[in-house]
Amino acid sequence: MIADRRRRRGQGAGRAASRASAKEVRDLTADRARALALTPVSRETLARLDRFVAVLLAWQRRINLIAASTESKLWTRHVADSLQLLALEPQARIWVDLGSGGGFPGLVIACALAETAGARVHLVDSSGKKAAFLRAAVRVTGAPATVHAARIDDFVRSAPEPIDVVTARALAPLPELLAMAYPLLKKGARGLFPKGQDVAGELTESAKCWKIQAGLALSRTDPDARIVVVRGLEPRFRPAPGKGFD
User: Fold this and answer.
1) Which end of the chain, N or C, is surrounded by fewer C-beta atoms within 10 Å?
2) 82 and 88 in contact (C-beta within 8 Å)?
């Protein structure tokens, strides 16, 4: 009898959570429409993105995947902001997203590339909880993504295949980001790094340590933001053996 009551309570809680998730998804309808106007996608991609958003909202109650203040603008602030990177490298097939966290931009990009032959997105995050979320989201969406629960330094030094594009969002200041991505960039990967209004200062700081071949692309989602497009990168000095830039 006690077991039956517990089971009924568990079932009731599950239904309540499902109702709450459905309500949250409905509340995002207007923001979803704005995002799709900024970054249109196919019907198949939209279906995958809808499933991704639903699973993200469910997991958001357990672990912090996005800032609570951005939940009401999840589609424009996070989904569209991620999708816009695809137009900058339309021929790229193999992507790496460093510090994937809530799946932005990597898992969103994977959802959009699901119908593209040979596409693969590597999602790298050292947090076990976030890696578990990413694996759940990959299962739900069927996106062509592989989750790596690993330190960024370890992954970039032994990437499993040649990489076309490396990206990261809200992970670190640009000088640190370039150091993290350098093992991939020096092998020919391009870098796409969304940045806010302080991008000019970050580029100035980066230039003290790096010779950068880079440009700035306008953001579709934020008039003050830019995307740093890195085509080439060399250190201005050579570190001592074993001290980095491997």
Assistant:
1) N
2) no
Q: Is residue 105 part of a domain?
A: yes
222 Cβ partners below 8 Å, 6+ apart? Answer: 81, 196
Strands 190-195 and 226-235: antiparallel
| Strand bridging mode 94-98 / 190-195 | unpaired
The reply to whether 123 falls in a domain is yes
CA distance 196 to 241: 34
pLDDT in tens, the chain (246 residues): 444 554 444 444 344 444 445 555 558 999 999 999 999 999 999 999 999 999 999 999 999 999 999 999 999 999 999 999 999 999 999 999 999 999 999 999 999 999 999 999 999 999 999 999 999 999 999 999 999 999 999 999 999 999 999 999 989 999 999 999 999 999 999 999 999 999 999 999 999 999 999 999 999 999 999 999 999 999 987 655 555 555
Cα(94)–Cα(166) distance, integer angstroms: 9
- Joined tokens for residue 59: 């997991």
Number of C-beta neighbours around residue 82 at 10 A: 25
The pTM score is 0.86
Torsion sign, CA atoms 56, 67, 70, 170: negative
**Quick one: residue 65, left, alpha or beta (phi over 0 = left, psi -120 to 50 = alpha)?**
alpha
Neighbours of 164 (CB within 10 A): 18
- What the block records as the tokens of 212 is 């950068």
Question: Total domain count for the chain?
Answer: 1
